Amino acid sequence: MPGAAATVITGAVEGDLDEVLLRRIAEHAGCCLGKVHGRNGKQKLLQQLMGYNNAANHGPWIVLVDLDQDCDCAPDCLQQWLPMPSRFMCIRVAVRTIESWLLADRERIARWLGVALVNIPEAPDSLDDPKQELVNLARRSRRKIRGDLVPREGSGRSVGPLYNASLMEFIQDQNAGWRPDCAVHRSDSLARCINHLQELARL
């Protein structure tokens, strides 16, 4: 846990689920994550990025954004989105969505979903659509989680009604939930995020 004199880092994310995940990662990295901005979608986050970058001239910031299908790799998108980051700006990209980071803790996500470990991908950062992969895995579950994560037929939605709420519970469960220290070994984009957070914590 960060000490009383720890540097407070300001954040910005796409949505509420991303904030919960970022706070969990920051806690693991020994950071003191303060106010988190955004939570109004990716497009809005990118529109406000220059303002966040200007604020990062005066104190440390971390912006978490999904790669999705915007570029072939994270460095290409970073060059487009923020070619000249401020001194205290850390912008990190989840490849291709934050669900890849959750899938990277294979043992815990398999147990939580109630599916066999062999069904969990070995290299989640290489998936074209980690979010869809997670929903498809939930389809195999016989637990309540299936109704929470899988969209109802004819709903026109990509996820179930309690998708975010269920994943937030999984992330925040210190005893049986997601473990960033395990997930980091199977996700390079998560490892980079944690390393940069640790650097910000030392400022």
Task: Give an overview in words.
The chain is α/β, with parallel strands linked by helices and 203 residues long. It has 2 domains: 8-95 and 187-201, 3-Layer(aba) Sandwich (Rossmann fold); 100-177, no CATH class. The chain has helices spanning 16-28, 42-47, 49-55, 74-81, 99-103, 106-113, 130-139, 145-149, 163-172, 180-183, 188-201, and strands spanning 8-13, 32-38, 61-66, 89-94. A 4-stranded parallel sheet has the order 2-1-3-4. α1 (16-28) runs parallel beside α9 (163-172).
Fraction of residues in β-strands: 5-15%
What is the N-to-C order of secondary-structure elements (H for helix, E for strand)? EHEHHEHEHHHHHHH
Largest sheet: 4 strands, parallel
Strand order of the largest sheet: 2-1-3-4
Helix percent reads 40-55%
What is the rounded distance between the termini?
16 Å
Average pLDDT, all residues: 95
CATH fold-level assignment of the largest domain: Rossmann fold
**What is the total domain count?**
2
Q: What's the quick description here?
A:
This protein has helices at 16-28, 42-47, 49-55, 74-81, 99-103, 106-113, 130-139, 145-149, 163-172, 180-183, 188-201; strands at residues 8-13, 32-38, 61-66, 89-94. It is of the alpha/beta class. Helix 4 links the parallel strand 3 (61-66) and strand 4.
Set down the secondary structure blueprint.
Elements: E1 8-13, H1 16-28, E2 32-38, H2 42-47, H3 49-55, E3 61-66, H4 74-81, E4 89-94, H5 99-103, H6 106-113, H7 130-139, H8 145-149, H9 163-172, H10 180-183, H11 188-201
Parallel strand pairs: 1-2, 1-3, 3-4
Helix pairs in contact: 1-9
